[in-house]
């Protein structure tokens, strides 16, 4: 489990095509500290398993399903990525509960800078819109954010200077894809309500 508090802005240093999958090599001095084979690291919000690591780099395999459902397939050598290790038991939950299971992708539609923050508008797939509410939580490229405005096919988030400086959202321009993970609590509530309504018939 992750919290959506990005630890560092890493970089893809190599991409190996494996046919129906690919292998990324990524640089991340912070997240590789103490890392071993089999550990999990969230890459732009996608939970990946460490295959190997050496120095400040690690490798991770990405299956076709993940490439199809996320924006990782659009990345290449030199791409910057958000990196986060799983939260430790007993640690503070600084963001919200993030599984690292991407629900879909959106697209940066526009950016509106102001003096001390920036508003970013992001497209929202129709099948995810019901889980996104004003002042609710959403994960964008692995970043735990609060929804400012929720429309039928978009939402907006407000980014502070720290988020702009230390994550990919400071770099992405209109047209860029982003990974989205909606609040898992909303999905569980929906499933439970559906079950209770069925039981009452």
TrEMBL record:
Stored InterPro entries: ATP_synth_asu-like_sf (IPR023366), Lumazine-bd (IPR001783), Lumazine-bd_dom (IPR026017), Riboflavin_synthase-like_b-brl (IPR017938)
A Pfam family the protein falls into: Lum_binding
Pathways per UniProt: Cofactor biosynthesis; riboflavin biosynthesis; riboflavin from 2-hydroxy-3-oxobutyl phosphate and 5-amino-6-(D-ribitylamino)uracil: step 2/2
Listed GO MF terms: riboflavin synthase activity
Swiss-Prot/TrEMBL catalytic activity: 2 6,7-dimethyl-8-(1-D-ribityl)lumazine + H(+) = 5-amino-6-(D-ribitylamino)uracil + riboflavin
Gene Ontology biological-process entries: riboflavin biosynthetic process
Oligomer status and interactors: Homotrimer.
Protein name: Riboflavin synthase
């Amino acid at each position: 489990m992750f919290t959506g508090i990005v630890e560092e802005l890493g970089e893809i240093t190599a991409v190996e095509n494996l046919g129906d999958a690919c292998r990324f090599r990524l640089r991340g001095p912070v997240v590789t500290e103490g890392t071993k084979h089999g550990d999990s690291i969230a890459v732009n919000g996608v939970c990946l398993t460490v295959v190997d690591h050496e120095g400040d780099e690690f490798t991770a395999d990405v299956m076709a399903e993940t490439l199809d459902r996320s924006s990782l397939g659009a990345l290449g050598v030199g791409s910057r990525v958000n990196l986060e290790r799983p939260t430790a038991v007993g640690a503070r939950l600084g963001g919200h509960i993030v599984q690292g299971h991407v629900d879909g992708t959106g697209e940066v539609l526009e950016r509106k800078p102001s003096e001390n923050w920036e508003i970013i508008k992001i497209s929202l797939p129709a099948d995810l819109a019901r889980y996104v509410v004003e002042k609710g939580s959403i994960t964008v490229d692995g970043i735990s954010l609060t929804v400012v405005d929720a429309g039928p096919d978009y939402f907006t988030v407000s980014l502070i200077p720290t988020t702009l400086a230390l994550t990919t959202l400071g770099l992405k321009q209109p047209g860029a894809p982003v990974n989205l993970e909606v609040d898992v609590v909303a999905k569980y509530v929906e499933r439970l309500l559906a079950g209770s309504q069925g039981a009452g018939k």
